[in-house]
Amino acid sequence: MSTRSDRISADERREQILDAAVAVFGEFGYAGTSTDRVARAAGISQPYVVRLFGTKEQLFIETLRHTLERLLATFRAALPVDAEEASVEQRLGEAYLRLVEDRGVLLTLLHGFMLGSDPGIGPVARDGFLQVFRMLRDEAGLAPEQIHRFLADGMLINTLLATGIGVDAATDRDAADLMECTFGERVGEVLARASA
What PANTHER family does the database record attribute to this sequence (predicted)? Predict the structure, then answer.
């Protein structure tokens, strides 16, 4: 029997469930995930997940918010103190690549954006994307053309990483060329990170 001091707080349990949900929603998508699957991944009971989050839709919404908060925190931590070190875009891009080494983060974000027309999930996805835009504009100080390039390149990178096209680069010349024109000399490093 565990003592009271062995128990984790409700906030810690909530974070544990959200972290498990990022992995599960990332792997199975919204349609392929159940609250039971998330509960098993978190090592707790399904009724507890439902008690904390309600429906699967609300669990996904909270998971998407959790992932977006992580993304924004990662970007904020990468803002340069000394502009001589690297450009803001380079720092943000590097931070993003480190973050999406966790495939669950990458795929949860993509699943959320793909559900943009859903009446419950769509507003959260759109608001999250706009939060990223505002952070790039207001906090990172990027100009409109820099924001456009950063977001466009980011979506291309997301697509390449999510589809696993880099895996095909070893045997498909077109896949290799696409990876090369996207990542340049860093293609090997990106492929190593994506497969880690």
Answer: HTH-TYPE TRANSCRIPTIONAL DUAL REGULATOR CECR (PTHR30055:SF146), HTH-TYPE TRANSCRIPTIONAL REGULATOR RUTR (PTHR30055)
Give how many domains the chain has, as a whole number: 1
Q: How far apart are CA 150 and CA 140, in angstroms?
A: 12
Q: Which domain holds residue 86?
A: 8-163
57: buried, middle or exposed (CB in 10 Å: 19+, 13-18, 0-12)? middle
Q: What is the CATH number of the domain that holds 55?
A: 1.10.357.10
Tell me how far the alpha carbon of residue 135 is from its chain's centroid.
Answer: 16
CA angle, 165 then 170 then 173, to 5°: 80
